[in-house]
Design goal:
single chain, mainly beta, five-stranded antiparallel sheet, globular
Length: 99
């Protein structure tokens, strides 16, 4: 499991859940929701930004992600993650990273 920074998302008046209108992404032991160009996760009585720490590569990845690849594309900050095998990947320097 990738470590996650605990940064509370301030002023989040929307309750995420089934039918909330945002893309739900399974992530380790929780669900992230795509909202305002980043990912949130429920944490107690608030939402946290779900941002991994460190650099974790996905070593065995022979699939190239991009438009029309068949995987869900998630806008994430200044790049796009792709949901594949139950987690998010992002292209980085000739390989894919876990997000």
């Amino acid at each position: 499991m990738t470590a996650v920074i605990h940064t509370q998302h301030e002023s989040h008046n929307h309750a995420h859940g089934a039918g909330c209108g945002h893309v739900a992404v399974p992530h380790d032991d929780h669900v992230d929701y795509v909202h305002d160009g980043h990912l949130h996760r429920a944490h107690g009585d608030h939402y946290d930004e779900c941002e991994p720490t460190g650099h974790t590569t996905h070593d065995i990845h022979d699939h190239v992600h991009g438009e029309g690849c068949g995987h869900v594309a998630i806008p994430h900050g200044d790049h796009v993650d792709y949901v594949h095998d139950g987690h998010r990947h992002v292209a980085h320097a000739g390989h894919y990273d876990e997000h």
